[in-house]
Amino acid sequence: MTIAATQDGPLGIICGGGAIPPAVAAAVMRRGRRVMLFALRGFVDAQAVAAYPHCWIAVGQFGRFRRLARAEGCRDLVLVGGLVRPSIRQVRLDWATLVAMPRIIRAFRGGDDHLLTGIGRILEADGFRVLGAHEVAPDITAPSGPLGRHRPDAEAMSDIARGFEMLAAMSPFDVGQAAVIGKGRVLAVEAAEGTDAMLRRVAALREAGRIGLPRGVGVVVKAPKQRQDRRFDLPSIGPDTVLHAAHAGLAGVAVVAGGTIVAEPQRLVEAADSNGLFVFGRADGEAN
Amino acid sequence: MTIAATQDGPLGIICGGGAIPPAVAAAVMRRGRRVMLFALRGFVDAQAVAAYPHCWIAVGQFGRFRRLARAEGCRDLVLVGGLVRPSIRQVRLDWATLVAMPRIIRAFRGGDDHLLTGIGRILEADGFRVLGAHEVAPDITAPSGPLGRHRPDAEAMSDIARGFEMLAAMSPFDVGQAAVIGKGRVLAVEAAEGTDAMLRRVAALREAGRIGLPRGVGVVVKAPKQRQDRRFDLPSIGPDTVLHAAHAGLAGVAVVAGGTIVAEPQRLVEAADSNGLFVFGRADGEAN
What we know:
Low-confidence stretches of chain A: 1-6
Number of strands of chain A: 13
Largest sheet of chain A: 6 strands, mixed
Radius of gyration of chain A: 19 Å
Number of helices of chain A: 10
Helix content of chain A: 25-40%
Oligomer: homodimer
């Protein structure tokens, strides 16, 4: 579903870290809608949001956020960007958050998407409408087919199919947004560490001679968890994903077309082309 | 199946790294059978095998191994110990290995258990009988129930059940002998990196404030892959597993009773008791 670009009030973008929040902001503005960024202190680099209307909130300042959002006339919200779990010292509490605390703690106990779904529910119970980045800015998701110059060969396609199949099998356990497969062998599975850390691990294993495959063999696959609400935790890739994959000696990166945010697509394609990697969007529901 | 202890000829033990090969040797000798250790150069610490009849072979010296084994009258073999994939420089080739090479290369291309199954098949084609460590030394596998003073509480039992269930779901993909679960959330999944490296990762994530669970919550579960031949790649735990789990802030370690080798059980129990961790053997096939 694509949301009409002409609704009243700016779109509120609650921003975690990384390049995706500004990319979503730019894409929404290109579609003619105003934005207001709520940058989470400690997660967001000031430079990343400097070009957009923004204000700062701390994790836990639900009351402050609510006041600011209402003052700005934001009824529609998206939640995007990296949310590395805050340490206790980064958290600032206010009264509204204390009231919501039991729900927030319950949300924190599950996986990351439980956390985000939980926060989403709290926002919706408060009268906000929570949208997905793929709804407000569909042009920032991966298209179907290759992005850039290189294409997966038959062996890579087979690794991609196996990877997506395994991620689907793990999905009921609320884990496995990404994995690395080489010649049918599962080299790494992502859980709490994140995709970049998983790729650094593969690079280190390869350096230690523990992969046993030549460079240029193997793929990293990323997929949304099947049961997750895509409004809250769409997987994303960016130039760094490609560079980490190149460093890990992989042939390329495969994602679900329309179900993955591509941050900085131009830099991503440059990184892929110059390192000889493919970036491939597999049509959702495509046969294994 | 338990193998009679009085067969002719010593049991040949092809040894990878770690504490398990000497533990298997000791357990076999306690049952009254002679042993001959074939220590893989580059993987085995000389001290570990010093107390047992042994000779050294290099990876790739299949011909040398065959001559030595026949000279010693070893018809029965077990393959145990860590087999971190060798870098090319550690490999010494001989003619018999060159002949077997196409099969070895095919074996290397699959997962670790393909590698070991492949080597096992080559040995069997050559007239050896390949046995599992659990067959020649059943007393070195984990018993059912708690090992040591501590027991899993209801929350840990629920994490254990979820962990085994997830490992079973991943098993068709030849991956996932171990995972870390905390309050139902999957924190880490093992692939090519090994259990200790996975536990170090959990420790680092916890230190970075990215686990979001108090210390003493979470379990590491280990299980044989369902379709693997248990003769070749039984999972194992030892004192180091417990210490890594303690460092990662976990409540304990759970394994499949009778399907997991326990290296140095006394030191393992001491490590568990003094760090407040449980070590729990779940009866194979126990309901989730």
